[in-house]
Amino acid sequence: MFNEVYDVIVVGAGHAGSEAAAAAANMGSKTLLITMNLQNIAQMSCNPAMGGIAKGQIVREIDALGGYSGIVSDTSAIQFKMLNKSKGPAMWSPRVQSDRMRFAEDWRMLLERTPNLDFYQEMVSGLLIERDKVVGVKTSLGVEVKAKTVVLTNGTFLNGLIHIGDKNFGGGRAGEKAATGITEQLVDLGFDSGRMKTGTPPRVDGRSLDYTKMVEQPGDDNPEKFSYLDITKPLETQRSCYMTYTSEVVHDLLREGFDRSPMFNGRIKSLGPRYCPSIEDKINRFADKDRHQLFIEPEGWNTCEVYVNGFSTSLPEDVQFKALRSVAGFENVKFFRPGYAIEYDYFPPTQLKHTLETKLVNGLYFAGQINGTTGYEEAASQGLMAGVNASLKVQERDVFTLKRDEAYIGVLVDDLITKGTEEPYRMFTSRAEYRTLLRQDNADLRLTPKGFALGLATEKRLRRMEEKHESAKQFVRFFENQSVKPEEINPILKAKNSAMVKQSGKLFKIFARPNIEMNDLRELGRVASYIQEHGLDREMIEQAEIQVKYAGYIAKEKNNADKLSRLEYVKIPENFDYSVIKSMSFEAREKLKKIQPTTVSQASRISGVSPNDISVLLVYMGR
Question: How many helices (H) and strands (E) does the chain have?
Answer without folding.
Answer: 21, 22
